[in-house]
Amino acid sequence: MDEDLKIQLGKQGVFTTTLEEVYNWGRKSSVWPLTFGLACCAIEMIATTMARYDLARFGAEVFRPSPRQADLIIVSGTVTKKMAPQVVRLYNQMPEPKYVIAMGACAISGGPFRDGYNVLKGIDRYIPVDVHIPGCPPRPEALIYGFMELQKRIVEQELTGVRRPAHTVVAAPSEFNVPEFGEHGLEPPMNPTIAPRPQLVQINIPTSVQASPTPAEKTTTA
Amino acid sequence: MSVINIEEIKAVMEAAVPGAQMEVILNPSPSAQHSLLLPREHALELARFLRHDATLCFDYCSNATGVDWPDLETTEKIRTKTTVDGVDKEVEETRKTLRSGYLEAVYHLFSMEKKHGPLVVRMRTADRGANVTLPSLTPIWRGCEFQEREIFDLYGIVFTGHPDLRRLLMWEDFKDHPMRKDYVEPSEDDGTTLLAASAEGGTAV
User: Fold this and answer.
1) How far is CA B151 from CA A80, B62, B106, B191, B202, in A?
2) Which of B10, B25, B86, B87 is the most buried (most CB within 10 A)?
3) d(Cα B80, Cα B160) in Å, to the nearest integer?
4) How does DSSP assign A19-69, residue by residue?
5) Do the Cβ atoms of B174 and A198 come within 8 Å?
6) Half-sphere exposure of A188 (CA within 13 A, CB side)
């Protein structure tokens, strides 16, 4: 709708808007996170909801004890390999539209435990993450900032057209593959459909042109 | 008995359990926390003695843990003086000794009643492959149950006589023992490690 016309009409006491705008405004102002914490990041998440930082100012104070009633899962803390299937299962049980915040270094990549035998190297291997918040753990301000970024995403979401949410597309997957406990680790180690990883491509440079190859020239990413 | 004399305890224990030969493992650090190596076949009897003896009375096991000792090859150079054709010569020889590896369980014992401790006792398996059984000390100190399960999980020591020997931390179908020195994590490359490898000039696998 034309902005000028909107202002003109507003001066006459007629308020105009779109269904999309009202709908998204309502959704972003009332996000219900899941009561779900994994490690020290969860303590910061709890602090964020309490009086000093007060996440309620942003409309996300109703932490729900059931995934069926939640539309945001804040993965706050270290996801162990033993816990990972349960996290994916919780995500699958949430109704659409749903969002994921990966809070802290561990949830993003495994963090300081990345080289351990028991820690998942980032929850985005199995579920799609909307906002990554770095930190170890991130301060409540950082979580609030990350939450505001998520609100921006919600407002920008289109309800129709090519960019409409995935859950309105019948063919799009509604559930994500729950990894299984294998003999040496989780099977499969990641879900490639979630976040396509960079592929290594070998480029053969003719030897006549090539003077002294540096390792960076030999291999490159596409 | 406030200060524990490990040699005294060793003598008392060897007298109490006939045929048991123990070894004192010295700790060269300033703490000088020496330990006793219990022979596998007499370990349960020795532990029972430690638990029930009126003066020792080690009624509490505060900690049980595992250690992996892989095969170790040590080289030492030995200088020998020989006389060849009337001339003194110093010949240097390298001697290699191979100590075959084993797994070890370490227990820290205290006495709540007598207020003394810790006494550190160890048990060693025959090797790191097929013969990895040790007697469980859970029947003596009930608190060892979960800790022995953890040792079984992470080091692969099989405790005979344990009431419920299952993996504690990893899942049931898991095959490896992650705390062993030769444990290799399965490759879970997601591209980021590949990028790091190529940036460092290494080969991407």
Assistant:
1) 19, 15, 10, 34, 36
2) B10
3) 49
4) HHHHHHHHHHT---BB----SHHHHHHHHHHSTTT-GGGGT----BSSGGG
5) no
6) 11
CATH of A14-181, one of 3.40.50.920, 2.60.40.1930, 3.40.50.720, 3.40.50.12280: 3.40.50.12280
Answer whether residue B28 is part of any domain: yes
Domain span at residue B17 reads 6-68+103-182
Min Cα separation B189/chain A (Å):
9
- Contact assignment for A197 to B174 by CB distance below 8 Å: no
What does the block give as tokens for B74?
A: 């040590």
Residue A196 has pLDDT above 80, yes or no: no
**CATH code assigned at B50:** 3.30.460.80
**CA torsion sign, A78 to A79 to A82 to A86?**
positive
- Measured between CB atoms, which of A125, A184, A197 is closest to B186? A184
Looking at CA atoms only, how far is residue A213 from chain B in angstroms?
11
pLDDT of residue A222: 44
Count CA within 13 A, CB hemisphere, residue A7.
Answer: 3
> What is the C-alpha end-to-end distance of chain B, expressed in Å?
60
For residue B154, tell me if it sits in a domain: yes
- Domain total of chain B: 1
Neighbours of A109 (CB within 10 A): 22
Which A residues, 80 through 139, put their C-beta within 8 Å of a C-beta on chain B? 82, 109, 115, 117-118, 121-122, 125
8 Å CB contact of B183 and A82: no
- Provide, rounded to the nearest whole percent, the portion of chain B with pLDDT above 90: 60
CB A129 within 8 A of CB A102: yes
Q: Does A212 touch chain B (CB under 8 A)?
A: no
The tens digit of pLDDT for each residue in B42-69 reads 999 999 999 999 999 999 999 999 999 9
Residue pLDDT, tens place only, A53-97: 999 999 998 999 999 999 999 999 999 999 999 999 999 999 988
Choose the closest CB to B173 out of A181, A216, A218.
Answer: A181
CB-CB neighbors (< 8 A) of B168 in chain A: none
Q: What is the pLDDT of residue A64?
A: 92
Average pLDDT, chain A: 87
Structural domain contains residue B178? yes
